[in-house]
Amino acid sequence: MAKKEHLNLVFIGHVDAGKSTTVGRILYETGAVSEQVLNKLKEEASRLGKATFEFAFVMDSLKEERERGVTIDISHREFETPKYHCTIIDAPGHKDFVKNMITGASQADAAFLVVSVKDGVQPQTKEHAFLAKVLGVSQFAVNMNKMDAVGYKKEEYEKVKGEVEKMLKSIGYKTETIPFIPASSYGGDNITKKSTNMSWYNGPTIVEVIDSFKVPAKPTEKPLRLPLQDVFTITGHGTVPVGRVEAGKLKSGDVVVVMPSGAKGEVKKIEMHHQELTEAVCGDNVGFNLKGVEKKDIKRGDVIGPANNPPTVAAEITAQIVVLNHPTAISIGYTPVCHIHTAQFAGKITELVEKKDPKTGQSAGKPDFIKTGDVAIVKIQPMKAIVIEKFSDFPALGRFAIRDMGQTVAAGIVLDVKPKTQ
Where does residue 82 rank: exposed (0-12), middle (13-18), buried (19+ CB within 10 A)? Predict the structure, then answer.
């Protein structure tokens, strides 16, 4: 059996639109969750007075698993479609969504916006769609969920579809290429099987839409970039870094450099899921021996690359950000914590270059400050040595979130990097 290509999906949308139920239903119908497990969750759901929540519990049962789980599996759930091996990233609120997008745990190749036809477009519906756009998720579909709640009526679907199209157009999506699927995740309509309740709809099911997505080309030809999630010292093995290959390949025998420290070493044994590999490619989560590098020269958030093409340490970056949630206004001198790949750093805003109209993407001039809802191009100076790459060169090392006061304030992508001269 040839290994299927891998696709990362994220389900986004307003709180009660039915994201978890959709995901649970997909996992159940593709055989990733068994009948017994579902029956157990059904009992638990009715015991807790949350009848109809059994599918949602499939995803939510991960919460405790997540809390005590390993860093490598950040709320992942996997399933198979006829064409792909898919990993779902559950995205409860936007804070988690952004955090998941950037802890390097996953890069979403495609997004499903879940909209409840009963409730129409909600504030978070727009926010999530906008976020996906700014963070570079280019493939998109809409699950028009809870059709059972409106009697499977075509006119209800058309009405809300019109609202969603208008909202997506306003943030720059080409809606003519976006599939809209009328579905009931709870009833199982148009998830993996065509619904008998909506004879007026003859388009694809949700799983058929998933199979129509394209897997982005892997940057295998690019130089190696491997952000570290952890570094262990194992007796008899020495220094063992762990991380995900985001670009290029890692082969045993390679001479690599750890940035920002500049320490060089030779790659010895590479392991993935306790199996030895001769080379690791994009998307592989691996642990490997690094000979010649001392523990003090390597830590979480560092990036490994070829010695002859080291990862870029940034003196200053130019980025396009969207302000999601700031109590007042952001001006020059603001120094929040930025999270990028597996690293975090304090970054000082040194210039507000221009503001953009989020509806059209046109420039709205040079602002004195920016606030919630604004899209802007800014310059940020990292307060410590940190590897940052341009989003266009290495997407995974060029998207970041800005956090402050325990919440995600903004998110964005790196347009340009001024390298630090040693």
Answer: exposed
